Every structure is written in structure tokens, then in C-alpha cells.
TrEMBL record:
The keyword Membrane appears for this protein: yes
Any Gene Ontology biological process: oligopeptide export from mitochondrion
Organism: Rotaria magnacalcarata
Lineage: Eukaryota, Metazoa, Spiralia, Gnathifera, Rotifera
Protein name: ABC transporter domain-containing protein
Keywords noted in UniProt: ATP-binding, Membrane, Nucleotide-binding, Transmembrane, Transmembrane helix, Transport
One matching Pfam family: ABC_tran
Main location: membrane
Topology term for the membrane: Multi-pass membrane protein
């Protein structure tokens, strides 16, 4: 139990770190009836350690409530940075980021972060059981809900094949599991929380294409079942984002192209060229 507690503290240390954020943010307001609208308004951003390099420049992006949006672009173009800014791990250098029209700097930072569930390329697992990892942070979770999330993330069959099932401990940082299994548990955790905004940053990158397709289908299904959820997906494998409502292509610090998969393919621009290249690879 001691190790579970210290793992839990590690989690909070990680997610509550506030490198450039002032302490006043805990006094900020909460939105009573947050709809899930997100807007980046003329955002400029440089990391504090590299002030001369502008990662985002005149970055403009609006995500409507319930929309399922994909953000794509070359490695290092700033996609994960967008997600970091949204959760306020850093503040913008100029411009603003708003939720339902309210600048996130005016919002209570704990409330703000509780609106998002993030599954990313490097899953964070604790030395606890699989059930505890999926239901992380929830007091008295129901096993039924845990199984439902695990089934959607296509990890349930694997879990029940283990001698101790959901009570199996995953080891330090999930070392008893493969990369793809860890990612599926983190997706299950993200779905279990039923967030207002789901953030997926290369969340299926360690899976083989069979499992990736199943998880992608489950995510499409989850989005259809809860049309009020706003989702932002980042993916290199462009075949995984075909069914998103809109795809934005990030290049040179801002959105260069937007549209559905079909629209962007017809346009023969950046997306088309990325698509052709990734399907050849
Ligand atoms: N903490 C940091 N401090 C300084 N620079 C950073 C930091 N994190 C990222 N960068 C730089 O900011 C730029 C954008 O990084 P980011 O991680 O947003 O790219 P990305 O589009 O997510 O790339 P990938 O597809 O490889 O994940 C890169 O040039 C990167 O080197
Ligand atoms: Mg990234």
C-alpha cells in the first residue's frame, strides 16, 4: 500500500507541476456548465528555456463542443505543445486560450485540468493492480465500469486471461506489460473518467495495426455514444483519423490546412503529401 501511495503522489506531482504558472490560478473560477468549446486565439508561444524559438506563431484554432478534431503535422511542429498549453503546463507568450470563451488563465487550474483526460505515447502506470490503474483517482469505483472501459480499449480479453485478472499488479511503471498493453490501459483510464474533453496524443502508436484498428473503432464508437464529448487526436498514422469531423494540419507554427480527410485529399496540399508518404512507408 505504501508503494501505491508513493506512486499516487508521483502522479499528482507530475500532473500538478506548474512550471510557469502563478499560484493565483487556484483562486480562479470554474465554469458552471462547460460545453466543451476550445479556442486558441492568435497564440504565440516559445518554451521558457528556448525563448528565441517560436513554436507557435499566429496559431488560431477553434474546436466546437462535441467535435472530434485531429491535429497532424511533421515531428516537432508543435502538436504536443498545443495539448500542454491547453492544460496550462505553460502559458502562452501572446494571445490567449479560451474554454467557452473564458481565458484559461482566469480559471481554477485544478478544475481546468479535471476537464481533460489525456492518453499519450508514454503511458504512466503505477505499481498497483490493473483495476486500480484504470479507475485511478475514483473512490469506490464499480468493477462494471472498469470492465466497460477496458472492453472499449480492447484490453479486457487480455486482462481476464491473466491468473489474477483485474487484480494483477502491473509492476513499477507497468514493467510487466508490453507497450501496447500499457497504452490500452491508459486509454481505458481516459474513457473510464468520462471527461468533457478527451485528448489523445499518439495514444495508439505502440500497438500493432490489428489492435490499433480495434481501439480506433472503439474510440469512434465512444465518440458516437457521447456526442457531447469534445476530442482532440494527434496521430502520425493518418489512416487512424479518417473519420474525424475535421483535420487540421499544423506547419510553421500555425494551421495551414483544415478539412475532412476527403476534402484535404482532393486539395493535393500538405495533408495529401503527408498521406501519400506515410502510406508508402
Ligand atoms: N520542454 C521543452 N523545452 C524546450 N523545447 C521544447 C520542449 N518541448 C518541446 N520542445 C520543442 O518544441 C518543438 C515542438 O515540440 P512538440 O513536442 O510540440 O512537437 P510534436 O509536433 O508533438 O512532435 P512529435 O510528432 O515528434 O511528437 C520542438 O522543436 C521541440 O524540440
Ligand atoms: Mg508530440
Amino acid at each position: 500500500m505504501g508503494s501505491s501511495l508513493s506512486a499516487a503522489r508521483g502522479f499528482f506531482d507530475l500532473f500538478d507541476r506548474t512550471p510557469t504558472i502563478d499560484n493565483g490560478s487556484v483562486d480562479g473560477r470554474q465554469l458552471e456548465n462547460f460545453q466543451g468549446q476550445i479556442e486558441f486565439n492568435q497564440v504565440e508561444f516559445s518554451y521558457p528555456s528556448r525563448p528565441t524559438i517560436r513554436v507557435l506563431n499566429k496559431f488560431q484554432l477553434t474546436i466546437e463542443p462535441g467535435q472530434w478534431v485531429a491535429l497532424v503535422g511533421r515531428s516537432g511542429c508543435g502538436k504536443s505543445t498545443v495539448i500542454q498549453l491547453l492544460q496550462r503546463f505553460y502559458d502562452v507568450t501572446h494571445g490567449k486560450v479560451c474554454l467557452d470563451g473564458v481565458d484559461i488563465r482566469d480559471l481554477n487550474i485544478h478544475w481546468l485540468r479535471s476537464q481533460f483526460s489525456l492518453a499519450n505515447q508514454e503511458p504512466i502506470l503505477f505499481d498497483m493492480t490493473i483495476a486500480e490503474n484504470i479507475a485511478y483517482g475514483k473512490v469506490n469505483p464499480s468493477l462494471e465500469d472498469i470492465i466497460e472501459a477496458a472492453t472499449k480499449a480492447n484490453i479486457h480479453q487480455f486482462v481476464i486471461s491473466l491468473p489474477q485478472g483485474y487484480e494483477t499488479r502491473v509492476g513499477a511503471k507497468g514493467s510487466h506489460l508490453s507497450g501496447g498493453q500499457k497504452q490500452r490501459i491508459v486509454i481505458a483510464r481516459a474513457l473510464f473518467r468520462q471527461p468533457k474533453v478527451l485528448l489523445l496524443d499518439e495514444a495508439t502508436s505502440a500497438m500493432d495495426s490489428y489492435n490499433e484498428q480495434i481501439v480506433q473503432r472503439a474510440l469512434v464508437q465512444a465518440q458516437t455514444e457521447d456526442p457531447n464529448r469534445t476530442s482532440l487526436t494527434i496521430a502520425h498514422r493518418l489512416s487512424t483519423i479518417h473519420s474525424c469531423d475535421v483535420i487540421h494540419v499544423l506547419s510553421k507554427g500555425h494551421i495551414e490546412e483544415s478539412g475532412t480527410h476527403t476534402e484535404l485529399m482532393q486539395k493535393h496540399g500538405l495533408y495529401y503529401h503527408m498521406y501519400v508518404q506515410t502510406t508508402i512507408e
